[in-house]
Design a protein that fits this description.
This protein has helices spanning about 1-15, 20-35, 35-50, 55-65, 70-75. The protein is mainly alpha-helical. The protein has a domain at about 35-75. α2 (about 20-35) packs across α3 and α3 (about 35-50) crosses α4.
């Protein structure tokens, strides 16, 4: 798991290079709490962008709305 965590951290840092460090850490902690949820979210966003032709931001917002309950539970714990 240590290698997987390291690779995930590096990928997240690269993807979120413009996000402030504190916010990056908060997001990383959420991803570590439920990586499967974020995997589902990512796959669904990719599918909507690639197959549906939606803009990345719109697809992300719509998918995040769909998983709002699960995300709020993660932030509450």
């Amino acid at each position: 798991m240590a290698i997987q965590d390291f690779l995930l951290n590096q990928a997240m840092k690269w993807k979120m290079k413009d996000v402030p460090e504190e916010q990056r850490e908060q997001i990383m902690n959420l991803v570590k709490k439920d990586p499967e949820l974020f995997k589902k979210i990512g796959e669904e966003v990719d599918r909507r962008v690639k197959k549906g032709g939606e803009p990345q931001m719109k697809a992300t917002m719509e998918v995040m709305k769909k998983y709002r309950k699960e995300l709020s539970e993660l932030t509450a714990t």
